[in-house]
Amino acid sequence: MAAAPHNPPLSVFGATPDELADRLAAVGMPRYRAKQVLAWVYRRGVIDPEAMTDLSADDRKRLADHVAFVSGTLVADRLASDGTRKLLIDWSVAASSSSSVALPLADGATGGPSGGDDRTECVMIPTESRRTACISSQVGCPVGCRFCASGLGGLDRNLTAGQIVEQAWRLAWMRDAHGEPVGLTNLVFMGMGEPLANFGAVTRAVEVLTAKWAMDLAARRMTLSTVGLPAQMRRLAEADLPPITLAISLHAPNDELRREIIPWADYVAIDQLVDAGRHYFDRTGREVTLEYILLGGVNDRPGEARQLADVAKRLRSNVNLIRYNEVAGLPYARPDGDAVHRFQRILRDRGVNVHVRASRGRDIAAACGQLRHEHRAGSTKPAGVTN
Ligand code: SF4
Q1: 258-281: b or e for each residue (b if 16 or more CB lie within 10 Å)?
Q2: In sequence order, what are the residues at sequence separation of 6 or more whose Cβ sits closer than 8 angstroms to the Cβ of residue 107?
Q3: Measured between alpha carbons, how far is 78 from 106 in angstroms, rounded to an integer?
Q4: Span 177-226, pLDDT tens digits
Q5: What's the gap in Å between 316 CA and the centre of ligand 1?
Q6: Which of 197, 206, 281, 371 is the most buried (most CB within 10 A)?
């Protein structure tokens, strides 16, 4: 049966093999073509139907007409001195498949439409042993943390599952200095947006990202970072998904201070987060992590470190401390090194497993929402926050 002509193209990045096969069959192609197409996309990094040489000319044409490959346009590609690389993608105008195969290799903007606000960021953070993709789940963010560039404009919309996976694919298939694909070892949902507020798309993306036929990332190397929606945390624990790591963006060790810096804390108490986090651990066996952005003079004092240690011990979680990066126009400061070390020592002395996450890519505004914020504001100053 032929597909109705008005059917929008199916996003290859959001589809399962069965869904892709159904669509191909509906337009007169053999179902087994789905496996071939997915192998081109995920094993060879090819998203131009014309380059899929084991398909007939007719099938290549039908594929191009009925399946969408990339759905965004790369509008900025920046390389920091420490190797961190950040892409800004505009979803308002789809790129042609062929233009997006050749992702730019060099530092600098790449042209393309940039006037709208339908843009998100994704970041590649390389270390000696890891290549971690940090991806966005929404355009803008509904949470509105007072210190964050992404929260400044509120939520524009949810990303689709395909757009979420596409970010990881783009990062994985970027070329290194030798022309080889960079590849991914780890992935974090710590870019723009609150992942659990886009539950359906994010969980479908996790399914694709961990699938053998697609990105084949190990669940234990994936982290979803949430500001804390207890009902959705429980739903994630019950979901039929590989057990990824859950990180709670706590950022304050008591409800009063948390409400000052995270508007959604008005609706959720830390006790509820601890209960939901323990439930996640009980169901999945994955330890929950607490993320804590240190804001100079706001939440980085010894009393707060002691309170945070109590929360961490109740949750049996480890703690990641992140030094804030200033955002132009926001009244928060980066804490000094002494305050960070003192804070960490207090937690350690209380038996908490605590790490200070390295600030990466400060010279390219690598943290959440900064690059988009800069583009929107027309500023040249690296500014922003680590989510
Ligand atoms: Fe949203 Fe995270 Fe920014 Fe808060 S820190 S506004 S949750 S993107």
Answers
A1: bbebbbbbeebbbeebbbbbbbbb
A2: 77, 78, 79
A3: 8
A4: 899 999 999 999 999 999 999 999 999 999 999 999 999 999 999 999 99
A5: 24
A6: 371
Check: CB of residue 156 under 8 Å from CB of residue 140.
yes
Residues with catalytic roles: 121, 368
pLDDT > 90 fraction of the chain, expressed in percent and rounded: 78
- CA torsion angle 283 312 350 263 (round to 10): 180
Q: What is the pTM of this model?
A: 0.88
What is the Å distance from ligand 1's center to 23 Cα? 36
> Are the C-beta atoms of residues 154 and 145 closer than 8 Å to each other?
no
Going by the DSSP 8-state scheme, the letter that residue 297 receives in this structure is T
Q: Which two tokens stand for residue 266?
A: 């008005």
Per this entry, what is the length of the chain? 387
Rounded to an integer, what distance in angstroms lies between the CA atom of residue 83 and that of residue 107?
Answer: 11
d(CA 292, CA 387): 9
Enclosing H/E stretch for 131: strand 131-134
